[in-house]
């Protein structure tokens, strides 16, 4: 399949690496030509920085830009590629948002966290596809199957719900790790001492219902420990962490309230 990538960030970079072995990357389009050249050079594609340079000799255009930029980007390239299938990689932007700008619209969403420093296991990464037309849905499904063993045809509403859950499971949990590191750094305690605990917690969450695996003072209703922890945060002059601790502890307690009834 001949594919054009719009964007040169983390998602686009990982997609290019994954697609290059089975498909042809024709062009990489970024408004920053240097970034386009760096990514295109990895797969001998043409680097461009203007929509009027896009070629129609491509089977698929993948728009891998931030959610805020999707509508404008699709609007700018649709005029030059009126007959081509254009998809975005967002978990939260609906298919309708693209259809308002382009008739042959679709979604190619990988449920994964991307960083330049780490490789992605595409075979185990869930891929979600959606399209305005059945033939395009088939094309996207075939493309997804060439990368992953876990391919799903989900509606925009299902995908948006999944993206919301992903924010809790990934973004919020990572911020919890960040807060934990702030707490131990303040007392010059080695953050790596928490690594076994972090890994074991993640393993349990993926093997068993997380509710059943909940532990800690809030789940036990141990008010003495809760008060002590909040006092420590208060003494360290971290009202932000103290507030997060209080809200999360209250949530855990309410979730497991039946244990005390």
TrEMBL record:
Residues 2-88 form the Pyrroline-5-carboxylate reductase catalytic N-terminal domain. InterPro entries: 6-PGluconate_DH-like_C_sf (IPR008927), DUF2520 (IPR018931), NAD(P)-bd_dom_sf (IPR036291), P5C_Rdtase_cat_N (IPR028939), TM1727-like_C_sf (IPR037108). The keyword Oxidoreductase applies. This is DUF2520 domain-containing protein. It comes from the Bacteria. GO terms for molecular function: oxidoreductase activity. It holds the Pfam family F420_oxidored. PANTHER family: CONSERVED HYPOTHETICAL ALANINE AND LEUCINE RICH PROTEIN. It comes from Acinetobacter halotolerans. Gene3D superfamilies: NAD(P)-binding Rossmann-like Domain (3.40.50.720), ProC-like, C-terminal domain (1.10.1040.20). Residues 126-250 form the DUF2520 domain. Keywords: Oxidoreductase. The keyword Oxidoreductase applies.
